[in-house]
């Protein structure tokens, strides 16, 4: 497939984290990772889609079907793992844990060349917070 966008067009992948309470999730990511809210669209029923940025790394948060995502969150089995590469993974992991994330394993130097730790946010999403050594 050939793709010839204009010279000023940037191809990007922006993950969307599906949650059962988008407003609370946005507030968690702001507190945990100092995320900036770039955009928010709110439906009449209160469901939202928001675009966030962590030091320029952008992603979306969106309310999903309540019953489906509530069950997945409780089981801790939402099938996504986010890699957050930052200059100070220790500080980012500590901030996320203080905001309510669960530590799977602490940030430490790994044999494969990263300083990396693993947390699960209150919505069941796994985050590997790291930087290359």
Question: What would your notes on this structure say?
Answer:
Helices cover 24% and strands 39% of the residues. It has 133 residues and is of the alpha/beta class. It has one domain (16-132): 2,3-Dihydroxybiphenyl 1,2-Dioxygenase, domain 1 (Roll). Strands 1-4-3-2 form a four-stranded mixed β-sheet. The chain has a four-stranded mixed β-sheet with strand order 5-8-7-6, with helices on one face. Strand 7 (114-120) and strand 8 form a beta hairpin. Helix 1 packs across helix 3. It starts with 15 loop residues before the first strand and ends with a strand. 26% of the residues are buried. The model has no long low-confidence stretch (mean pLDDT 86).
The CATH topology is 2,3-Dihydroxybiphenyl 1,2-Dioxygenase, domain 1
Number of helices: 3
Instruction: Please tell me the total number of domains.
Output: 1
Return the CATH architecture: Roll
Our Rg estimate from Cα atoms comes to 16 Å
């Amino acid at each position: 497939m050939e793709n010839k966008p204009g010279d000023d067009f940037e191809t990007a992948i922006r993950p969307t984290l599906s949650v059962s309470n988008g407003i609370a999730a946005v507030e968690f990511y702001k507190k945990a990772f100092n995320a900036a809210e770039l955009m928010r669209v709110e439906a009449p029923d209160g469901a939202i889609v928001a675009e966030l940025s962590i030091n320029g790394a952008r992603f979306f948060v969106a309310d999903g079907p309540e019953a489906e995502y509530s069950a997945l969150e409780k089981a801790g089995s939402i099938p996504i793992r986010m890699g957050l590469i930052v200059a100070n993974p220790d500080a980012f992991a500590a901030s996320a844990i203080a905001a309510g994330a669960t530590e799977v394993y602490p940030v430490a130097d790994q044999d494969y060349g990263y300083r990396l730790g693993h947390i699960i946010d209150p919505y069941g999403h796994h985050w590997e917070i790291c930087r290359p050594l």
